[in-house]
Write a structure and sequence with these properties.
Elements (H helix, E strand, L loop, with lengths): L1 H21 L18 E2 L2 E2 L1 H12 L4 H13 L12 H9 L7 H20 L14 H19 L18 H11 L38 H14 L35 H5 L26 E11 L8 H22 L1 H20 L8 H50 L7 E7 L3 H61 L24 H15 L7 E7 L12 H11 L1 E9 L2 E5 L3 E2 L5 E12 L6 E9 L11
Antiparallel strand pairs: 1-2, 3-9, 4-5, 6-7, 6-8, 6-10
Helix pairs in contact: 1-6, 3-6, 5-6, 10-12, 11-12, 12-14, 13-14
GO biological process, one term: protein localization to ciliary transition zone
Keywords: Coiled coil
Protein name: CC2D2A N-terminal C2 domain-containing protein
Length: 643
């Protein structure tokens, strides 16, 4: 199709050139300027492209064919749509100003066909390719297609102006205020300002703080204040029902669930020994951290938990209003409590029985008829028993010495208290100590005492014998080293002497080396010395044979001297004590939950409350404390003046 069009275009050009050569040149007809050829005036002046194009068109001396091609080019340009039934601006201009030359009938019909064809092109507005030619067209249509193709090829060589392709207009600018206004209409951005409390609570309702009422509230999760304000503003805007806020005006939230320590056990690696992990190690007790702050979990059935706190009374071990007798009485009471605790444990007697059992096990191990095990195993077991006997004997001696020292201290404090009462001639405390004596069988006691002494002596002799043999082995090895060093020194001196006799000029001083320490042979164990040490230690920590056992008993059976028989200083002290009263605050998890009634302080510095507090709890009890608050009644004397 393109080749055919090119051939037809070439034939048309040659035909037009031959027609121009045959025609006689005539003067150029005058014509009016077209509306579309007016100079385009803009802010920047006349457009140079249009001016050059107009000059070229004015200087063109070609004939009718050139005019015909320009007309075709003008028809192809985009024009506004023409209402039906009215001629276009181009047709009206040509009707009044165009000079038509005489042409054959076929040529007269061509402009009309071209005009119709141009109108179709204006409707298509810039399509590059012509629609395909249908079958059955006549020769007239083929010539019209040729003329349209010629016009298209001619248009490719024309210089198009800038306004044909580019639309010049100011840049689009959107104001910041307009953009913010549009975003405000489309988006919801909560405010970061603090919401007043009355907006988060119903009308005419005051905020209620459970912490001030003694209820425990867990520690809330730390959230920045700005985030809280944004959330509160959003909730109030989206859900005005205020169901997300509590009685205190804050957002409802559970306590902080983050644990400070992990709850899973550590994983063992292949390099670690499993036996080392199974060994029992002592560790100080630590506070257990629960998996949640609440006693009832999310999946647990509901239930009520109650904690009963029974406050019976309060006893002061020291107070600023104590007298000297009160100080001794408090010390005596503390010592007596220690005595009762040690007597209840009875650790000294337990260690004594254990020591006797170990000795019996050693005696059975030394009997070959009663030991079915091998000799090596038996000897190893006996050595372990002997080592444990040494440790148990030391612990028993320490416990017996503590018991005897505690009993002596109790008796000493009681004697000081009795002396003070005799010196001041009045009594402030009702304490009374009674020493009860328990008789023992003197003969059996002496036999048991002597058997224990002899058993301990034999054990110590055996220990000293083992130590003596070990020291002798060390002494023999050190002696052999010293003798070898001496022998080496003598041989070296002899060799040096021979060298001096043979070559006196080459005499050199040789370093004899460091002399090994010559040990002193250990002394053998003396039985008499060991026996004396054992008897002295037993006399300090044990009861002598035949001596009765003393059992102290502390009671409040004594009498307190009345005020009229006491000196003035003591009376003032007692009156000062009567002016004092106190009460206790009960705090659960660092929150006050209750308090006792105010009670006066007694003369014996004891306060009786006798109250039981029932607490309904929802969280795990982490701390429970009792705070003592003392109230003092101060009397201010009135000064009477003269009017």
């Amino acid at each position: 199709m393109r080749e055919r069009m090119r051939e037809k275009l070439q034939a048309a050009r040659s035909k037009a050139e031959s027609a121009l050569l045959q025609e006689i040149p005539t003067p150029r007809p005058r014509r009016l300027r077209r509306p579309s050829e007016k100079e385009l005036e803009t802010e920047f002046g006349t457009e140079p492209g249009r001016e050059v194009q107009r000059t070229q068109q004015e200087d063109d001396s070609q004939g009718f064919s050139r005019v015909k091609f320009h007309d075709s080019a003008r028809k192809i340009k985009s024009k506004p749509p023409v209402p039906p039934g009215f001629p276009s601006a181009e047709e009206a201009y040509n009707f009044f100003t165009f000079n038509f030359d005489p042409e054959p009938e076929e040529s007269e019909e061509k402009p009309k066909a071209k005009s119709r064809h141009g109108t179709n092109q204006e409707e298509e507005e810039g399509e590059e390719e012509e629609p395909p030619v249908q079958e059955g067209v006549n020769k007239m249509d083929e010539e019209e297609l040729l003329d349209g193709g010629d016009a298209k090829h001619l248009l490719l060589g024309l210089d198009h102006a800038a306004e044909d392709f580019v639309a010049v207009r100011p840049a689009d600018y959107e104001s910041v205020h307009i953009r913010l206004q549009m975003e405000k209409e489309l988006l919801f951005i909560p405010s970061t300002l603090t919401v007043p409390t009355y907006k988060k609570l119903p009308e005419n309702v005051q905020p209620r703080y459970p912490e001030d009422e003694g209820l425990y509230i867990g520690a809330r999760l730390e959230v920045p204040r700005t985030n809280q304000n944004i959330m509160e503003n959003r909730l109030l805007m989206q859900e005005p029902g205020r169901r997300w806020f509590g009685d205190d005006g804050r957002i409802l939230a559970l306590p902080n669930p983050i644990k400070p320590f992990p709850s899973r056990p550590p994983m063992l690696t292949q390099e670690q020994d499993i036996k080392a992990e199974l060994e029992t190690l002592y560790k100080k007790a630590v506070k257990y951290i629960h998996r949640s702050q609440h006693l009832i979990g999310s999946g647990d059935p509901p239930g009520n938990f109650q904690l009963d706190i029974d406050i019976s009374g309060l006893i002061f071990t020291h107070h600023p209003c104590f007298s000297r007798e009160h100080v001794l009485a408090a010390k005596l009471a503390q010592l007596y409590d220690q005595y009762l605790a040690r007597r209840q444990r009875h650790k000294a007697q337990f260690l004594t029985d254990k020591l006797q059992a170990l000795r019996n096990a050693v005696q059975m191990g030394l009997n070959p008829a009663k030991t079915p095990k091998s000799l090596e195993t038996t000897q190893k077991t006996i050595n372990e028993y002997k080592s444990e006997i040494r440790q148990t004997r030391k612990l028993r001696d320490v416990e017996q010495e503590k018991d005897r020292t505690l009993l002596k201290t109790i008796i000493k404090v009681w004697k000081e208290m009795k002396s003070l009462r005799e010196f001041q001639r009045f009594t402030n405390t009702p304490l009374k100590l009674v020493l009860r004596k328990e008789k023992v069988d003197q003969k059996a006691d002496e036999e048991a005492y002597e058997a224990e002494i002899q058993a301990e002596i034999s054990e110590l002799l055996e220990e000293h014998r083992e130590e003596y043999e070990q020291k002798m082995e060390e002494y023999r090895s050190a002696q052999q080293q010293w003798k070898a060093w001496k022998k080496a020194q003598r041989a070296k001196k002899k060799k040096n002497k021979q060298v001096v006799e043979e070559r006196p000029d080459e005499m050199k001083e040789s370093d004899p080396g460091e002399e090994p320490v010559k040990l002193v042979p250990p002394e053998p164990t003396d039985r008499a010395v060991i026996e004396q040490q054992v008897r002295e230690r037993a006399a300090q920590s044990r009861r002598r044979p035949g001596e009765p056992t003393l059992v102290p008993e502390l009671s409040l059976a004594g009498n307190v001297t009345p005020n009229d028989q006491c000196p003035r200083v003591e009376v003032l002290r007692r009156e000062d004590v009567k002016r004092r009263s106190l009460y206790l605050k009960v705090t659960f998890n660092n929150k006050e939950v209750s308090r006792t009634d105010s009670r006066p302080l007694g003369a014996d510095f004891r306060v009786h409350f006798g109250q039981i507090f029932n607490l309904k709890i929802f969280n795990w009890p982490e701390s429970l404390t009792l705070q003592v608050h003392i109230l003092i009644i101060v009397t201010v004397p009135r000064i009477l003046g003269h009017h």
